[in-house]
Amino acid sequence: MATFPEYIAQNEERDGVRFSWNVWPSSRLEATRMVVPVAALFTPLKERTDLPPIQYEPVLCSRATCRAVLNPLCQVDYRAKLWACNFCYQRNQFPPSYAGISEVNQPAELLPLFSTIEYVVQRGPQMPLVFLYVVDTCMEDEDLQALKESLQMSLSLLPPTALVGLITFGRMVQVHELGCEGISKSYVFRGTKDLNAKQLQEMLGLTKPSAAQGRGPQAAPQQSFNRFLQPVQKIDMNLTDLLGELQRDPWPVTQGKRPLRSLGVAMSIAVGLLECTFPNTGARIMTFIGGPATQGPGMVVGDELKTPIRSWHDIEKDNAKFMKKATKHYESLASRASSNGHIIDIYACALDQTGLLEMKCCTNYTGLRQEVQVNPQEIGTGGTCQWKVCGLDPSTTLALYFEVVNQHNAPIPQGGRGAIQFVTQYQHSSGQRRIRVTTTARNWADAQTQIQSIAASFDQEAAAILMARLAVYRAETEEGPDVLRWLDRQLIRLCQKFGDYHKDDPNSFRFSETFSLYPQFMFHLRRSPFLQVFNNSPDESSYYRHHFNRQDLTQALIMIQPVLYAYSFNGPPEPVLLDSSSILPDRILLMDTFFQILIYHGETVAQWRKAGYQDMPEYENFKHLLQAPVDDAQELLHTRFPMPRYIDTEHGGSQARFLLSKVNPSQTHNNMYTWGQESGAPILTDDVSLQVFMDHLKKLAVSSAA
Amino acid sequence: MSQQGYVAAPPYSQAQPGMGAYQGGFGSGPTQPLYGHYGGPPQAFSAPPAGKMHLIVLNRTFFLSAITVVMIFSYPAPPAVSAPYGQPPHSLYNSMASPGPPPTQQLTNQMSSMNLGSHVQGLQSPPPPVSSVVQQPFQTPPPLTMAPPQMPPGLQSPHMSPLMSPPQSPPASMPMASQSMAGTSMAGMGGPFPGPPPPGPGGFQQPGLGSAGQFGGYMAGPQQNMPGAFPGAPSAMAGPPQKKLDPDSIPSITHVIEDDQVKQGGQVFTTNIRGQVPPLVTTDFTVTDQGNASPRFIRCTTYSLPCTADLAKQCQVPLAAIIKPFASLPKNETPLYVVNHGDTGPVRCNRCKAYMCPYMQFIDGGRRYQCGFCNCVNEVPVFYFQHLDHMGRRVDFYERPELSLGSYEFVATLDYCKNNKPPNSPAYIFMIDVSYNNIKSGLVKLICDELKTLLEKLPREEGMETSAIKVGFVTYNKVLHFYNVKSALAQPQMMVVSDTAEMFVPLLDGFLVNYQDSRAVIYNLLDQIPDMFADTAESETVFAPVIQAGVEAFKAAECSGKLFIFHSSMPTAEAPGKLKNRDDKKLVNTDKEKTLFQPQKGVYEQLSKDCVASGCCVDLFLFPSQYTDIATMADVPSHTGGSVYKYSNFQIETDGEHFLRDLRKDVQKSIGFDAIMRVRTSTGFRATDFFGGMYMNNTTDVEMAAVDCDNGVTVEFKHDDTLSEETGALMQCALLYTTIGGQRRLRIHNLSLNCSSQLSELYKSCETDSLINFFAKSAYRAILNQPLKNVREILVNQTAHMLACYRKNCASPSAASQLILPDAMKVFPVYMNSLMKTAPLVGSTELSTDDRAHQRLSVMAMGVEDTQLLLYPRLIPLHNIDVNSEKPATPVRCSEERLTDSGIFLLENGQSMFLWLGQASSPDFIQSLFNVPSLAHLQGHMCALPELDNPLSRKVRSIISGLLEKRSNSMKLQIVRQKDKPEMLFRQFLVEDKGLHGGASYMDFLCYVHREIRQLLT
């Protein structure tokens, strides 16, 4: 049998699933004692190039409350042509098409190899993909120009059959009619007045069949798209010109005012437009904004420049007067969009905040249409087992928390296995509707007798992320300090449960290998922008949290604990500790925090660079040294989405603060002399170092008073 | 003669002793045709209900001789004529305008009398009705008619001032002397001038001259006065006991016009005399501004105000001025000078804020000046100081227009601008209804094609190469489409706004553009518009949001301007200002009839306010095929100085050219924007009421979103106090506005009037054309609040009252049966009668409610020329036209009697134009004009004469085009054949005849008025 790490890696590779525990405690009580809940990180659309989609439909369990999909874990009676559902034990007849089934002639979905399998739904019309660009025109000319060019370029990247639409906004909101000859048309709306879908439909003249359709017999019946959303292949020239002619919002902005930006109405109209034209079809609203909404519903700040946008401080003091209303507006938009399966993306670029905090729900709630059906009959969950996630990309990773409902006194038979089936229905980017089914199972174990095997099955990385997501979720609803306290308590409890120690002897504390990294993750999580709002604007926090909540495990770990590489003449590039001791004068450091890629030149290296050694032929090796992290950074920049911020700095540089704020402050102005080390750079902070944190943790874990 | 005596003597006391003295004095004086009088026997009016009036003769035999119409004209002998001209100005100011000469003699009377008794049969086409009613009214009137003679003065109606009563007694006795007595008395007066009448070409004026002699002699007068027009008529009238009342013998507008033209036409009218009555509006004259505003800018109902409120009340002659601040001046008159007083702005009186003008009296060596309006003494600003000459006049008197002229402009400083910012140049927005009707009729294409060339000719500031006016385009049906036509664009952009509930303008940059710069894009747009909507099925429209859009556009662009809205139907789409059909013919002739004229409340009221506040003038071109509630739709245009043009059942073939002519005129006419007008007066009287296409937020400021060369504002004055004869009455009209070039200016018009404590002065200085303008507007406003019947009654009563007051106080004693009219008002009854027959005032279910509302509103903004023409159309005979003559053909009276079977007539009233072809008109003539052998070959629905190369055709066409050119509206030429159905349309403009939809003939009306007068006098 493979080791747990191997097992975990294999499972992740095949099914995109990682559980916090890979052996499950068999009762509810025990499960709660595990501190870290039984939970899974699931990447529904994990890229599987080796997974050919199956061109028929899945076979479903006939029990109305179950509807589980036939999978490799089902028991099959080949003679009787029956199969037993492994969730509800219902015996089901195979459909007629499976008449030729036998042990040697098994359909793909019964092969263990295909624990994850993808079906292509043949029924129903193939819906095109819909992309609706929502573009802010209140930008500096240069920014707008750059945006226009990117948008024009993006058209070439869309599938030719995809439908595109364009809404621009500034003081007013313009819905552009596409494919007009000789004159460009748009419908304009006031930026201060919200419209419901019906009003919008009337105002855009979408209620009755357009005159064009009545005109001739050639009007194709399947021309279900309208004047505002047209296939890329048909109107790309037109749209390119249209984008080219986009101008900065012409309404004058007087001194001391912000431009009037009707973001709230623009998004509402975008949602409304799709709502009345393409309900229940995958559609993506891509919003490009250059600043906060300053008027109408959803405004987050007034147009007076002298009143700054709300800060965390204002929010705490309940001084953010637009926030509640705006949040409500965006929440209602989000729910409208998500109920129709539409995604809202926001691309914001601005010096000031743009109101992401208020709009986060739009992106968080919506996000190609998908339904996740978790069928954890064996474990049993209360509440919802269906979710809608409007957009998924291959790296979107969901965290699912399960509850073991089995009572303590009704033990599960030895060797029993819990099974979970994820059914993901989605619209593929080719327009096909697909269903991906992932079925996985884990062993049950009695926590009292088999605690070691449960402990050994602990996936500390997955657990760290799962706990972090819980903490972030709490952070959005509770006060910051409470969340930290909760997190600390959980950590201490975990240490108490799984640590090996003598009571009241901190030095005796030992943690097994499967838990060893977990406290360190927690240490960095506490310092991360996901839980610390100090020095971050509400928007930044929202942005960071948004991405933390959907990236896959590896990326999420980088977010919590950035990775640090060192480049020096002493050898090939190597990962080094995220610690102030890693900051050495003759090193170049490359830090990846997911959101930032930072290159830091140590003091000596920086001096060499200033002196221009890299330009001297005899110091070509120095040149190479300088170049190496840059090349690596470029690679990261190109593969990462969203694109990280690239920072090139050096010892004493102002931007070095990004590095200094992340590393473990093992040396500070408080302890540098006592430690007396010569290497490393002291950090001017009062934050505790990892060492202090660990010491403290041990003390509390072993304390009998706790 | 009496001139001196009159001038020398304090007029009133002199005259007072008794009419006898009065009369004696003047009797020998110049025979001024002062008035006609109407020996009205028992004529009664069956009038009001039917709107018809019958002259009723009660007892023919008895009254035969008693019924006389005496026209007494003061226009005297030529010698008298010359005399007054020599008079120093101060005495001249009294002079009556029209027949000019003997201002003071005016009181001398001549009578023309005629026997009404028998005329009745002859005059009235339908004698039976007349006689049928005869009996009834007869019963009452006889005593009445008889009574006056015996009546002691004490019975005078109480409102007559005691002062006035003394003269009463003589007249009272005079009539008693019976007709012949009147005759002789007249003769006595007229005696001295048996000869003079004919001689004076100036004496042309009217019948009056005829009265020089006795009865018989008087008859001769008319003959001369109406040379050639009615050859047959006079002779019939020759004998003293006439059998018929000759229509020619009652005062005729055409003659009055002609006389004035002969006398003052082509002459220079110099405005250096206070209270000088200008020539008639119809007269062709040149004005030299020498201290008073040209009559083209201001005309008054009288140029001599009564000194006291009591007098004014007594005579009931309205005191009003009709101000056309932007009137166009003929080429040979100097345009207004622009004065710049620098950064401090125009010099104004500290107290009343009147602007520097010729009425400011400089004193104290030029260091101070006394305001002519409020008498406040002001310091002269240092920069403005100038020494005075020995006459006490500033040395720079002639160099400064504001010191020597009646009209001029000041450059306004930022204080006079909105938000203290100089205005942007104004804009014109063309808003085209592209709903089904307008597309189908081809109108949209017509407009778009026309705009391409028309926009090249936008009005521009004097001396500028191109027009500064910006243009913008909107099309609409249920939703509005704005167009971005920025010059940088490759193609226009259309922006649709569907949210009509809260209108806004979707773009700023590129909506209002300079035509020259954006020509290519605009061409492109205008080419595309008709095609874009070619397949439209949308028939619903919005209206208020369209105007709102214009307002918002002007607000956003911070400019003022004008909307040209081309609209087809009642706005029924769901939007603010949605209208529903409320046309209800059952309301006609009820107390609720006024509701038909009242705009629907709400949205439009507020819209008018918004428009005026942002300087947005609305011109509405309507192309309705049914009722569209013009009363409401035209509400905004009528409050913003805009015009409403209406083309019912528009068809390109017949109405297209007509519409385009209107459009061209409208776009090109000279205009000022965002205007505020204030009329200041010297102490003792003030402006109290205003009529016109404007909006008033308070009681003094007349706000107009725009004011163009045709807008006339009628201002009524009331006394505050006693006016002084010595200082007279001054008024200053100051109009703050933005020029088409975007400059802020103040246009000042000053006018000085006389004041007199004698009513005779007032009557002498009356201006009938102005009076009728005032009456038309006040009546048209009154019908909003009162039943039409009341309004008509008031009009008649006031007419009677004005004339009775004259009769009582100013006329020489004569028989009560005589109708005596002041010379200056002798044709007033024609106009008044015509006014009462206009569509708004005549209650007839046959008239379209929209037409009535439309006419009501258009008259409200008219100047004197327009109302004059509207109420008395020109009827020009063409059949005997001299193709080689340069002289314009002479119009004849608007009566069926003037038509002949073989005649061809052109009729126009400024709104409509007809070519009437008699049944027996000469085939040659028809051939020349139409290129068809006979009338029968004429195609119906012609709207223009074919261009034929013969002298007659050229001549007629040039007459028509000349008229079209001259009038503010273009008119559609309608060709009607005698006895054809459309002739009815034509006939309603024969205003001396009985109205088609009710309303008395001129003669009947005159008789009726006479009766009323007599009642008043008793």
Automatic annotation (TrEMBL), chain B:
Residues 202-219 have a biased composition (Gly residues). Residues 768-867 form the Sec23/Sec24 helical domain. GO terms for biological process: COPII-coated vesicle cargo loading; intracellular protein transport. Gene3D superfamilies: beta-sandwich domain of Sec23/24, Sec23/Sec24 helical domain, Severin, von Willebrand factor, type A domain, Zn-finger domain of Sec23/24. Residues 139-152, 164-173 have a biased composition (Pro residues). GO terms for molecular function: SNARE binding; zinc ion binding. Residues 346-384 form the Zinc finger Sec23/Sec24-type domain. It comes from the Eukaryota. It is found in: Cytoplasm, Cytosol; Cytoplasmic vesicle, COPII-coated vesicle membrane; Endoplasmic reticulum membrane. This is SEC24 homolog D, COPII coat complex component. It comes from Neolamprologus brichardi.
